[in-house]
Amino acid sequence: MEVVPLDSVEEVAALGADVVEAAVRPGGAVLGLATGSTPLPMYRELVRRHSAGLGPSYDGVRCFTLDEYVGLPPGHPESYRATIARELTDLLGIPADRVQGPSPEPEGLPGAGERYEEALVAAGGIDVQVLGIGSDGHLAFNEPGSSLASLTRLKTLTEETRRDNARFFGSIDEVPRHVLTQGLGTILRARHLLLLATGAGKAAALAAAVEGPVSASCPASVLQLHPHVTVLCDEAAGAGLA
Ligand code: F6R
After folding, report:
1. 226 is an active site residue
2. How far is the C-alpha of 65 from the C-alpha of 205, rounded, in Å?
3. Which of 193, 215, 172 is nearest to 66 (CA)?
4. pLDDT at position 88, please?
5. Which residue in the list 21, 138, 192, 234 is annotated as catalytic?
6. Which atom of ligand 1 is closest in space to residue 36's alpha carbon?
7. Ligand 1 pocket check for 150: Cβ under 6 Å
């Protein structure tokens, strides 16, 4: 695992954008995309470079969103599919039919995880998976206690995560209780994992993930089992590291 402590959010965004761009080759690439606040500065940097004609061509790139809320009305702006389109893929000119997430429609819920896993395999697997970390150490929406071998499935959010995410909604009551999420085993199948962590609220979780024991009580500690992980953190998030 390479852990790169940086001074600022801007440096995390710039170096993260370098990592993503390096994976985008002329023949295309498969990108795994987290949502939440942390990757947004990096996504804006990728868009800035693309708009300035500086980035690679995104022709042939396919994207998979990491997780998705269950129970939001179709087209809800806080769905992860809508968020990724608005913040990144539409702006990079990646067509909507090349961006896929776990499908939260009620009628398709049984089997949604298996279909998403099959789509990942059919695409050839993920080249770079962008990840954030929850303040409780969650990775994607694998909350503490999740199996380290888990695959994409329906999960229930903890109250802590619903409180953390209430800022995207009118109130905590509007935050869905359920999600479809890549499992920890799914995440480990990507060829390169890029974990971004910024802000003091992530310091304890990041230290536990990187330097603590590998344990389901800190799901992000599963990263220690992967052969190619890059962790980019700002000074505040890295404050708990030895
Ligand atoms: C988002 C996701 C979550 C977030 C985590 C941190 O797709 O899977 O694990 O990465 O909750 O969220 P932020 O970045 O908003 O602090």
Report:
1. no
2. 23
3. 193
4. 98
5. 138
6. 15
7. no
pLDDT at 151: 98
CA–CA separation, 100 and 220 (whole Å): 23
Q: Is 136 a catalytic residue?
A: yes
Q: What is the DSSP letter of 7?
A: S
Task: Note the pLDDT of residue 26.
Answer: 85
What are the 10-residue block averages of pLDDT along the chain, 242 residues in total? 98 98 93 97 98 96 98 92 97 97 91 97 98 95 96 94 93 96 98 98 98 98 98 98 94
Question: Which atom, in ligand 1's list, is nearest to the CA of 33?
Answer: 7
Between the alpha carbon of residue 91 and those of residues 10, 87, 101, 130, the distances in Å are 20, 7, 18, 18
Catalytic: 7?
no
Q: Which of 21, 68, 117, 136 is catalytic?
A: 136
- Does ipTM surpass 0.90 in this model? yes
Centre of ligand 1 from the C-alpha of residue 131, in Å: 7
Largest Cα–Cα distance in the chain?
48
The answer to pTM > 0.80 is yes
Residue type, 74: P
Q: Which domains does the chain have, with CATH numbers?
A: 2-240 (3.40.50.1360)
**Residue 74, pLDDT score:** 80
pLDDT of residue 85: 97
State the Cα–Cα distance between residues 209 and 142, nearest whole angstrom: 13
Which atom of ligand 1 has the smallest separation from the CA of 65? Answer: 7
Taking CA atoms only, the protein residue closest to ligand 1 atom 8 is: 140
Instruction: Starting at the earlier edge strand, list the strands of the sheet with 192-197.
Output: 2-5, 229-233, 192-197, 128-131, 29-33, 61-65, 99-100
